[in-house]
Design goal:
- By secondary structure, the chain is mainly alpha-helical.
- The chain folds into two domains: about 1-45, no CATH class; about 55-160, no CATH class.
- It has helices spanning about 1-20, 30-45, 55-85, 105-120, 145-160, and strands at about 95-100, 120-130, 130-135.
- The protein has a three-stranded antiparallel β-sheet, with helices on one face.
- The longest helix is centred in the middle third of the chain and has 31 residues, at about 55-85.
- The two termini are about 30 Å apart.
- About 15% of the residues are buried.
C-alpha cells in the first residue's frame, strides 16, 4: 500500500513538474508519456517510499511553515550578503562550521544539507555520517542555531521524529 500510494503521489508530482517546466505546452506531452513514468520509476528506485508518521494535515502545515521560514531566512540572508558585498572594507569572517545532525540518515539529513546550500551566505561542503560541514561568510553568525531550527522544521515535515 505504501508503494502504491508513493508511486501515485510521485506520478502526480512529475506531471506537475513537467507542466511547470514546459509552461503547459501541449506539444510536449508526447514526451511526457515516456519520461514521466521513467522519472517516477527512477525516483522510486533511488528513494523508496516509507510509511508516514503523523497526520498528513499536520505535515502539510509544517511544510507551509518551513517554506515561509526558508523564504524569510533567504531574504534576510540575501540582504546581509548584499550589505557585506557593498561595505568597505569587506565585512567577512569566512570559515567552516561543523554541525552534528540529530535527524536520521537519508532524506532528512540530505534535505537539511540541500536547503542550507540554497540559503545566501552558506554552502554545504560535506555530509559525513551525522556531521554536516558548512562554509559560511561569517563564522560569528548564529549558524548552528539556524541549522538546529532547520532540522526541527524538516523533521516536522518528514515526520522523522527528531523534533527536539
Amino acid at each position: 500500500m505504501v508503494l502504491v500510494r508513493g508511486a501515485l503521489e510521485r506520478v502526480l508530482l512529475m506531471v506537475v513538474l513537467w507542466w511547470v517546466l514546459t509552461e503547459g505546452d501541449p506539444t510536449t506531452w508526447t514526451y511526457a508519456v515516456a519520461l514521466v513514468p521513467l522519472a517516477t520509476g527512477t525516483s522510486l528506485w533511488l528513494l523508496p517510499p516509507r510509511p508516514r508518521q503523523g497526520p498528513p494535515h499536520r505535515r502539510a502545515w509544517a511544510l507551509a511553515q518551513l517554506v515561509a521560514w526558508f523564504l524569510g531566512r533567504s531574504v534576510a540572508g540575501g540582504v546581509d550578503v548584499a550589505r557585506r558585498a557593498l561595505s568597505r572594507p569587506l565585512d567577512l569572517a569566512p570559515g567552516l562550521v561543523e554541525h552534528r545532525l540529530s535527524l536520521p540518515a537519508g532524506l532528512p539529513r540530505v534535505a537539511v544539507a540541500d536547503l542550507t546550500s540554497l540559503m545566501p551566505g552558506t554552502l554545504s561542503v560535506a555530509l559525513e555520517g551525522d556531521v554536516l560541514t558548512v562554509h559560511v561568510l561569517d563564522t560569528d553568525l548564529p549558524v548552528t542555531a539556524q541549522l538546529e531550527e532547520l532540522e526541527v522544521r524538516v523533521a516536522r515535515v518528514l515526520g522523522s521524529g527528531s523534533e527536539r
